[in-house]
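Q: Got a minute? One more chain.
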Amino acid sequence: MSAIEESVEVQVPVSTAYNQWTQFEEFPQFMEGVERIEQRTPTLTHWVTSVGGATREFDAEITEQIPDERVAWTTVRGEAHQAGVVTFHRLDDTHTKVMLQLEHDPQGIADTVGDKLGFVRRQAKGDLKRFKQYIESRGTESGAWRGQI
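A: Always. Here it is, folded:
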């Protein structure tokens, strides 16, 4: 397993950042390589990704969700093996730190080489930067799910 930790500060209130993050089906707007996400139940999402010409599908189960604080998940079946948590830290009324912690298990030679070269870390960092641009340009969330798991 490889571990990644990345963070970004966004210029929106903590509730805005958290609310937008709960809109999983919009992740393709800012996550490179994510083709589609379907929210099948309140806790189950189905992902279709395409990275380097390789398309993969997997399901992820949300294991913990606390409004304005955290969203944690783990894959439960499919072609990717990972677990992670995104936490939201209020800096002041209009600024939030979004922190991603991800553990992933590279599958096969290409994944292992890509991991050793820092590809997943760079992609996570880029995705957080694109999330920052996405939410700051909108100024408000596109929706929200405030349930707790």
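A: The mean pLDDT is 90.
Q: Perfect, thanks.
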